[in-house]
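User: Can you help me understand a structure? I only have the sequence.
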Amino acid sequence: MKKLKIAATLLLLAAAPALAARDGDKGEGVVLPDVEMIDVPTAGILDYYGFMVKTRAYSGGGVLGTLNFGVLERLNLGAAMSVDKFIGSDSGIKMRKPEIQVKFRFYDGGYYIPAMAVGYDGQGYYYNPDKKKYLEKGKGLYLVGSKEIGVPGLVLHGGFNVPDFDNNYLFGFLAMNYTLEDKVAFIVEYDSLFHSDDPARLNAGTRFYITPYFQLDFALREIGRDGKFDNGWPRKSERIVQMRYNTSF
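Assistant: Let's start by predicting it. Here is the structure, written out as tokens:
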């Protein structure tokens, strides 16, 4: 029964994009700002009363579901939850505890200064049940800036984050995306900078704007990586698929 409830919840999240075909909507209009790239956040936020559902299928048959809300004009609140081994025939399905996500955009940007946002994201990757921690930690507390540079549609994102307060390590991240006619975007990002004991990650992907409300991502994480985590788990390149549906109340 518990597995059926989990399955029903995640299937509803995955089916949400089908709702994008509203009455009278032909898919025309301008797409909403990107609130994140692959793993890297942006200074973009959901509009007041905005709502976003995201599902990510990752290695080992796992599924990550995320809900975010524009609760105030500049404030987004949400939560993420992952389920390992959900896809496939493996019976060892495991639901991980939900993680909080918060973002506040405090500056809309100017001619020289990028738009700025501060936030918190506890969702990590590769959960280790023995230590009850993620081997790749979430962003934790972060500061991010986003700005279009040089060419229309070319946007640079960058910032700093503190994943946890046990060691107070300061990490950095960079990302860039180029969007063609609000139809397709090409993304590259360099994450987890500055500390060799948690190696930097190179990710790249393509985002398709199926409608102004529905996005489909195909991405490759940790390009060129071939090693192991501290606990001996393999650490290799990972293919992911993401779906996002944006709407409003």
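Now, to help you interpret it: The longest helix spans residues 2-15. The mean pLDDT is 86. Let me know which part you'd like to focus on.
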